Structures are given as structure tokens and as C-alpha cells.
Amino acid sequence: MTEPPTDRLARRQRWTRRALLVNVVAQGVLVVTGGAVRLTGSGLGCSTWPQCEPGSFTPALHEATSLHPFIEFGNRTLTGFLVLIALTVAVLVCTDRSRSRSYRLLGLAPVLGVFAQAVIGGVTVLFHLNPAVVGVHLLVSLALVAVSTVLVVRERAGDSPALPVVGQRLLSLARLLTAVAVALLALGVVVTGSGPHGGDDKVAYRFAVDPVLIARAHAGVVWLFVVVLAVVLVSLHRSAAPQAVRSAGRWLLGVTLLQGVIGYVQYFTGLPVVLVGLHMLGAVLLTVSLTWFLLSLRARDLAAAGAPIA
Fold first, then answer.
1. 1 has a pLDDT exceeding 50
2. Statement to judge: residues 154 and 186 lie in one domain
3. Which of 12, 72, 185, 189 is 20–30 Å from 53 (CA)?
4. pLDDT digits (tens, 9 = 90+) for 47-86
5. pTM, entire model
6. pLDDT above 90 covers what percent of the chain?
7. pLDDT at 54
8. Which segments within the chain are labelled E, that is strand?
9. 3-class SS of residue 98
10. Are residues 108 and 6 in the same domain?
11. C-alpha atoms less than 13 angstroms from C-alpha of 55 in its C-beta half-sphere
């Protein structure tokens, strides 16, 4: 008996949603494991790329072998796993003829980004953990987290035109919030690249800036982000914004405050590795929650979003 087309479509949608969610999680985990490589001084655990050691793709075992090669190799292996996930996403999304062309093209972003990241990671090793290259590596990873979040939301939202569910003032404030967030994340990269976790024990390049001064600049931008976010949330409270927008705003506020607390605690406790790693996880969660909030300001189904229909 032939399976009805509606059943096949529903099954395809379920698999697509699962793949997209796994992709977001995997992209975030890669950021955290990449941070673990840096924080444990394992960035040069594998001395070359794409092989780990000359003539071998796996760490060489000998009496002086430490954990560093295995930590670096584990991160590279996770990248390979992420390639498979991204390819699955590309196949499921790009071959779905029931969806718009813009959505299907967006499905290529994770796989293209992962391949670009593999090259950047190799350049990082070849340039002996230059903090500028490492910083680009992290920022591209966060951009992939954002794009992957967009895919999750777009898959559920459909392909109708996106219409604003809030006023123009709130949309302008959201654009300002985004610009401040980009500056916040970029300065966070500079802070890491100028501090004690800027390189491994043998090759320790640093940004030639005062780490205390740049940390204070980063904190200043964080406070600016909090102020702009507070204005946005107060404006939402006073407006007739849909409940989905309010919920996304509350989640963003919670992640922001938690990230701020971790940042201050790690600074005043001498940057312990565990807290720095949690701060990197916080950067991933901040990227996801900010992307979710920005997308909630426009809806492709106004009735489902609870927004008034003109």
C-alpha cells in the first residue's frame, strides 16, 4: 500500500526539525570544546594540519605523550561529526521543494561554514595560535550558531512574508542592541587574546594591549547592552507586543544577567579555567537567545504569533 504524500511530508518535517536542533547543539558544543582546547593549552597538541603529526592523522603514542594531543584530536573529530550533521541538514532542507528558495539556500550555510571553519582551524595551527586567527575562528563559530538558530525558527515559521509585530521604535532599538552585541562579542575575543589564555605554554602570542584596560572596555559595552536591553523590555511592557516576543525578551535578559555574573566572578577570581569555559558557553547561549528574540519581532503568521492583523 502506498504511503500518502501527507504522511511522507510529516515524517520529513519531523526529521528536519530534529536535524536542525541537533545542528544548533553541535555548533554550540564545538565552541565549548574549542575553548577547552585553548584553556588546557592543547592548541598545538597536534603539531600540523590536516594531519595530527607528520605521517599520521591520529596522535602519536610515546613515553612523553600527554593529554594535549588527544584533546586537540577530539576537537577535530567533533568537527568531522559536525560535517555529517551539516550535510544532513543541507540534504533535508535544500531538497524540500515545498519550501521557498531562500529557505532552501539557507540550508547550505551550516555545511559551508563548517568547511570554512576546518580551514580556519588549520590556519590557526599553522600560525601557531595567533590570537587574531583564533578570534576569527570563534566569531565564525558564533555566527554559525546564529544562522543555525535562524534555520530552526524559519523551519517552523513557514515562508509567508515576515511582517513586524512591534512598532518602528522597537525595531530601531533592536538594531542598536544587535550592533552593541557584535561589539561585545568582538571585545570578548580581544580580552581572551590579551590575557593568560591567549596561547599555550610554549607559544604564547598575545594581543599587544593592556588586558585590564580591554577587560574594562568589554565590561562597559556589557553594561551598554544591559541598558539598551532594559529600554527594549520596558518598551515591550508598555506596548501590545505578542506574548512570544515578551517571552523571548525575558529569556535574553536572564542569559545576559547570568553571563554578566560569570564574567565578573571569573575576573575577580583570577580567570579560572572552568569559569572561562562557562563564559564561552554563555556566549553561545547569548547568541542563540538574541537571535531568537530578534526573529520574534517579525512573524510570518500573524494570527499564530498573537499579533494584530492590519
1. no
2. no
3. 189
4. 666 667 776 666 665 544 556 666 777 777 778 888 999 9
5. 0.85
6. 44
7. 72
8. 163-164, 298-299
9. coil
10. yes
11. 1
User: What value does the mean pLDDT of the chain take?
Assistant: 83
Cell numbers placing 24: 544548533
Residues 15 and 112 placed together within one structural domain of the fold: yes
Is residue 169 domain-shared with residue 80, that is, in the same domain?
no
**Residue 275, CA distances (Å) to 39, 252, 310 in order:** 11, 20, 48
Of 139, 147, 229, 129, whose CA–CA distance to 188 is shortest? 139
Q: In total, how many domains does the chain have?
A: 2
Which range marks the domain in which residue 287 is found?
A: 161-310
Q: Are residues 144 and 175 in the same domain?
A: no
**Same domain, residue pair 108 and 136:** yes
> 102, 124, 159: which is the final residue of a domain?
159
| Euclidean distance between CA atoms 161 and 172, whole angstroms | 20
Q: Whole-angstrom Cα distance, residue 245 to residue 173?
A: 14
Please list, residue by residue across 123-150, b when 16 or more beta carbons sit within 10 angstroms of its beta carbon and e when fewer do: ebbeeebbbebbbbbbebbbbbbbbbbb
Contacts of 54 (CB under 8 A, 6+ apart): 47, 48
Q: Are residues 155 and 206 in the same domain?
A: no
Q: Which residues contact 110 (CB under 8 A, 6 or more apart)?
A: 23, 27, 85, 86, 89, 90, 144, 147, 148, 151
